[in-house]
Amino acid sequence: MAGTQGLVLTDQEGRFIIDDLPPGRHLVTTDHIAFEQRTDSVTIFSEEVVDIEVRLAVDALEIDGLVVTARTRFGRTSFLNDAKRADFISREEIDALLPRTTATVDLLRNVQAPGLRIREISTVDPVTGVPRPGLCIEVSRRSGGQGCAPAAVFINDVPVPYPEQAIIDMDPNFIDRIEVLNPVDASFRFGTIAGNGAIVIYTR
User: Fold this and answer.
1) How many domains does the chain have?
2) Residue of 118, 129, 189, 196 with fewest CB within 10 Å of its CB?
3) 57-88: per-residue pLDDT in tens?
4) Radius of gyration over alpha carbons of the chain, in Å?
5) Are residues 24 and 91 in the same domain?
6) 82 and 50 co-located in one domain
């Protein structure tokens, strides 16, 4: 009640009673955290009961802005504090290997990631249907069988349609670093497409 110390709370159905008001004009201000504040004028002529109905309008709440800072194991910042990790190979390590390495798959063989297996297999060319030598690159702690559950390959976080061929064709001189993700981490980052793990290559 404006100009007084009168303050009441509503019940669960929104009803309230204000007692002992003198005759005259009174201003009733209604507040609710989820609604816009409203002020109504009520006139009391004598000792009588006056019913008022207050309809509140929904009001968007304005709050101070929040700054959220996230840290991730993945992406271009993943190596800044992880120099001893075994599941990636840095540009410095690649430079050291290049004098005796001419293929990206040979760089992968130097990544000591748990569960990383690289095997030579016989595969069928998807265009010609002709058998040809191929690669099976798996990332799994389970021992490999006769089949192949290939890891997905991403170049600059973009999936490539023919992972094995992408590894074979890529010039190691253009690679900045390689990260190997196990199936859990790969699925968390890339979704079901990386359910067998992922080889993530970033170029220079």
Assistant:
1) 2
2) 129
3) 776 666 677 766 555 554 444 444 444 455 88
4) 34
5) no
6) no
